[in-house]
Amino acid sequence: MHLLFLLPITTLVALVGARPASQSLTPTLSQVYETTDTIPLPNIGNLQVHDPNVVFWDDHYYLFKGGWHVPYFKAANMSGPWTQVGTVLDGESVIHQGNRSRPWAPTTVERNGTFYCYYTLSTHGSRNSAIGIATSTKLDGSPWKDHGAVIRTGEGNGSDVWPFTISNAIDASFIRDNATGKAYLNYGSYWHDIWQIPLTDDWLSIESPAKPDAVQLSFIPGQTFRPEEGSWMSYHDGYYYVWFSHGKCCSFDVRGFPVRGDEYNIRVGRSRTVRGPFVDRDGKLLLDGGGTIVYASNHGLVYAPGGLGVMPGNSSTPDILYYHYLNTSIGFTDEQAQLGYNYLKYDNGWPTVLDGIAIKSSAATISRLPGWWSLMILSGLWLCMLS
Ligand SMILES: *[C@@H]1O[C@H](CO)[C@@H](O)[C@H](O)[C@H]1NC(C)=O
Ligand SMILES: *[C@@H]1O[C@H](CO)[C@@H](O)[C@H](O)[C@H]1NC(C)=O
Ligand SMILES: *[C@@H]1O[C@H](CO)[C@@H](O)[C@H](O)[C@H]1NC(C)=O
Ligand SMILES: *[C@@H]1O[C@H](CO)[C@@H](O)[C@H](O)[C@H]1NC(C)=O
Ligand SMILES: *[C@@H]1O[C@H](CO)[C@@H](O)[C@H](O)[C@H]1NC(C)=O
Ligand SMILES: *[C@@H]1O[C@H](CO)[C@@H](O)[C@H](O)[C@H]1NC(C)=O
Ligand SMILES: *[C@@H]1O[C@H](CO)[C@@H](O)[C@H](O)[C@H]1NC(C)=O
Question: Signal as a keyword (predicted)?
Answer without folding.
Answer: yes
